[in-house]
Amino acid sequence: MNDIANLKRVLEVAATVPGNRVRFQSAGLINVSSCNEKPQLVSNWLWAFMQLSPIDKQTVRSSPGLFLADVTDVVYRGMTSGSRGKHYIYFAGSEWNQARIAARKHSFTWWGIDDSTPVINVASRLLPVRPVDMAIAGIVDDNFIKSLLNLLQERPAVIRGYPSRICEVAVRLFCERVPPVLGVICTGENLFDYQKELLETVFGANVIEEYGCQETGISGMTCPEAGRLHLDTNRCLYEVIDGELVTTDLFNYVMPLVRYKCGDILQLYNEPCPCGRSGLTAKVLGRIEDKIHTLEGIKYPGEITMPSFDSILNYQVVRQDDKIDIWLQPKPSIELLLEGLGNWVDNTFGEVNVQILLDESNYNLQTEAKKHKNEDNRWIRTITAGQWADWLKQGWLPSGNLNKTAQLLQQLMNPAVVINSGLPSQTQALLQTILDSPHDEPQSEKITARVLLFACNFITDTAEIKSIYNQASQRLLAVISSNDVALIDLLIPSLYLDTDFACNIWANYSKKARFSKLDAFSIHNLLSAIEAAAQFARKSRLTPIVKSLRPIVSILIGDLNFFAPRFGIWLLAHWCELIHGQTVTPMEVLQASLSDRFVNNWLMWRQQMLKAGNDIDINIDLTLSKLRSVAKSPQEKARVYIEQGYGMLVIRRQLEPLQWLKVVNQNAGILNNQSPNHDIDPVPWIPIILSLAQRLFEINEPELAYQCLVASATPNSRTSAFERLAFQVNDKQSVILELDAR
């Protein structure tokens, strides 16, 4: 009965979206007498639902906004897999997210995985889900393997990822002693017999198959007793039509997809599973486009048996017309025999031309990593005056006293290992080593102290931050002069530490750092600190303005990007007041020695806006008039529009959607995919765009509302850095596929 009630509820929501109207009417599912009338389900809606034509991914992708039903409860933002390079962004609400987490937890209990058991996403694009989970991405090389072994050594865990990628890891570990693994979850690809055998041999753990398709609510996991894939029928209604899976998500009321063809080919079992659990069980055969020509006709990957062979660890088969390339990795110290593989090819594909591509490079760990003979001074120049992207991409580290310091900064900025809070254990250990080993040489000590202060941005325990801050500040002050640019680093943690501690920081260092300028290191430090400050603001909920201007991180990043060329600690002091809800230093510090008329008027405006959080009668146009009068450049004039939008949000005045949409497009070029005629940063527009999404939805402009939601993604540097690394090297890759020769 609950399933029926949930289905009716989601159909009632889905009936209101434009993308479903014609389809629902054609099936006789809704009664509509006029275009303005809210559609109602017919009395025999269940029968009519079965007449409803399925909808495919391409249709939704072409106009996703037409399937948007709500913009007020968007708590989850995801992206379809885009297995053929085409994807779209989908949204879901709080009930969907809660159901997703509950379903995952329920399936985990079958295998003895509870909330205290970490899951390590290995060599995939998958991010941690629970607080105890982790992810490790990058090329599967010596450093990757060492990181994984260190994680497993600290605490037994479940590893999870695409089977093709986990098998790459397993090959490198074949002759190694692996710490305890509690399970291996394979997801995203078909799992074949030889892969399962390899994974069980190397990791000594059960291999679990997981199936999911986020935008449809699909999820499933194999049971321990029979190894069958159990589909979660509580979250989704499943149908198989002409072999293709058709689903209806029962909990997504933000972007409901009804009778949606996700492109997967499944075979449902008719008889109940021997394990005794109720519900549907299935075998995943592959994607609808993943067809392979065999002697028995066209098959999907899941219909083909890929056995293990005595002298082969890992292999991949790629067919193109009458040619087959087989890439394989032989077992070490064993004569490679290809007779069994040849027989399998003959029996599966018949007479074809076969080319064997041998890879013998991935066996034993290489204990000697490459060392780059770069001087410490060169590295210091790179991170204080150069482009960080260059050295992070190249991966070179100084080989002298600063090697560990550089390693720490690299792990903070380009994390191969990600956890949901704080630092990974290996980064934490490296941090402690540096704290315990001060350098004597002033330049090395100075940059090390700055990196330690930078590390505070990524730590979640307040007591630990304060301890590191105190140690790092003492080390820095011992080696710098009163006019050193590095003094700004002492003030930056005041953004996210408690108010009393922040006020003490400003009392100690504001006069020394008053005229500090920014170098490349300071800018990166500020950007990371801004994200920590946004977390602090969300947790403390101190100021009304933080509640009005969501996400606050976009406000701060936008301010920094705009004012970086004329930066002063007045900007940092203003941010502290915004975040903490009170001044952290006397007001005269904010405007001391400022001759820039735009900056002075901007600060006065911001002070008025802070007061306006509790005064809805403030006249926005009047208080902005002085700022508007001194705005000369296109960038400054665009900034006045941004500030006007902020002010209206703070005093809870609605933005006229079409008017402001025009302002956004003219000044930022975000939603019309065209650049404006001057260089404008899109980040500070995010709170305005996010507010427009709701207003546009209310006036029946769902496509524009959807575009606003897509454009309003919250900036997150660590997640972005991890995803860039993961997408570069961790694609899904079936181990049997056929390429189209055309």
Beta-strand portion reads: 5-15%
Rounded to an integer, what's the Rg over CA atoms?
29 Å
Low-confidence stretches: 362-374, 673-678
Proportion of helical residues: 40-55%
Total DSSP E strands: 23
Q: Helix count, per DSSP?
A: 29
Derived from helix and strand composition plus strand pairing, the structural class reads: alpha/beta
Describe the global form. Answer: globular
Largest sheet: 13 strands, mixed
Average predicted local confidence, pLDDT: 88
| Straight-line N-to-C gap | 51 Å
Q: What does this entry show, briefly?
A:
The chain is an alpha/beta fold. Strand 17 (about 290-295) and strand 18 form a beta hairpin.
Features:
742 residues, alpha/beta, 4-stranded mixed β-sheet, 29 helices, 44% helix
Q: In words, what does this structure look like?
A:
Helix 7 packs across helix 8 (193-203) and helix 23 packs parallel to helix 25. This protein is an alpha/beta fold and 742 residues long. The longest helix has 21 residues, at 520-540. The protein is globular and about 80 Å long. The strands form 5 sheets. Strands 3, 6, 7, 8, 9, 10, 11, 12, 13, 14, 15, 16 and 22 form a 13-stranded mixed beta sheet that branches. It has a 4-stranded mixed beta sheet with strand order 21-20-19-23. Among the domains are: 2-93, no CATH class; 112-205; 309-369, no CATH class; 654-716. The model is unreliable at 362-374 and 673-678 (pLDDT under 50). A hairpin with a 6-residue loop joins strand 11 and strand 12 (229-231). It is 44% helix and 15% strand.
